[in-house]
């Protein structure tokens, strides 16, 4: 039931994206294909019964940039991933990612960015998983950010986001475990250039509200952080982040 709805949502998103492509003044498309070989020492993330496997992954990336005007553009990509696991069940696992990012310069000092990421995982019949044999899920992450330049040295960034995940297995997603969730995020930061084109300092705060379906509850957290970004050379960039988080839990 959920997967049918989710596939419908994906089809609508692809249709809207296709319509947007034809509205752009300039378009560039890029196709990449890569094959990777890897090893997973605990494929089921099970501390009681650890199982390992070699795997081969093929990733296809179809990306494009659309330019509507000198102030507005859009970046989008579709990335299916196909993984074959030699010693795991099921042998084949697929992932689907669709990402869209819209950029718009409201003025010379104010810049808007909106992004949306869709993800679908197909892992039906997985063994070794406690509580469910169906690990299919649909996930959506919507984010918006506003950058405001105060002067030549300082800028402020504020953002907000909403993410949700729905599992195909009702017992796993909405039963006792309640793994379906909604998540809200709000953040802000102040960035100042300490040395021209070399060193930046920043102060920020991030608030997160994560709620599971049913009566499982969730948690809220607030993080205060500070950091420094350093350009050592055109090819080497370093950064340091320090922060403090405090959280409250609700439910079980």
General description of the model:
By secondary structure, this protein is mostly beta strands. The chain contains 2 helices and 11 strands. The chain has an 11-stranded antiparallel beta sheet with strand order 1-2-3-4-5-6-7-8-9-10-11. The longest helix has 22 residues, at 2-23.
Number of helices: 2
Strand content: over 45%
Low-confidence stretches: none
How much helical structure, as a percent, in the residues?
Answer: 10-25%
Quaternary state, please? single chain
Task: Give, in spatial order, the strands making up the sheet with the most strands.
Answer: 1-2-3-4-5-6-7-8-9-10-11
Structural category is mainly beta
* Main β-sheet description: 11 strands, antiparallel
Report the mean per-residue pLDDT as an integer: 84
> How do the SSEs run, as a string of H and E?
HEEEEEEEHEEEE
Indicate the radius of gyration in whole angstroms.
21 Å
- Overall strand count: 11
Specify the overall morphology: globular
End-to-end separation in angstroms reads: 28 Å
């Amino acid at each position: 039931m959920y997967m049918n709805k989710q596939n419908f949502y994906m089809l609508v998103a692809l249709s809207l994206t296709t319509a947007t492509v034809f509205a752009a003044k300039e378009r560039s498309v890029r196709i990449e294909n890569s094959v990777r070989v890897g090893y997973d020492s605990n494929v089921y993330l099970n501390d009681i019964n650890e199982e390992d496997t070699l795997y081969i992954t093929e990733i296809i990336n179809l990306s494009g940039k659309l330019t509507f005007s000198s102030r507005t553009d859009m970046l989008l990509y579709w990335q299916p991933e196909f993984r074959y696991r030699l010693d795991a069940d099921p042998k084949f696992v697929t992932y689907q990612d669709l990402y869209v990012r819209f950029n718009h310069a409201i003025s010379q000092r104010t810049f808007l960015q909106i992004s949306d990421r869709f993800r679908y995982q197909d892992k039906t019949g997985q063994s070794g998983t406690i509580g469910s044999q169906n690990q299919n899920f649909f996930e959506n992450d919507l984010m918006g950010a506003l950058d405001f330049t105060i002067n030549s040295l300082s800028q402020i960034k504020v953002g907000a986001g909403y993410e949700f995940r729905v599992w195909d297995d009702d017992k796993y997603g909405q039963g006792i475990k309640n793994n379906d969730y909604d998540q809200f995020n709000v953040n802000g930061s102040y960035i100042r250039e300490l040395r021209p084109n070399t060193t930046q300092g920043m102060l920020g705060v991030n608030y997160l509200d994560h709620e599971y379906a049913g009566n499982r509850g969730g948690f809220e957290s607030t993080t205060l952080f500070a950091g420094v970004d350093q350009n050592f050379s055109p090819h080497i960039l370093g950064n340091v982040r320090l922060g403090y988080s405090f959280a409250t839990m609700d439910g079980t």
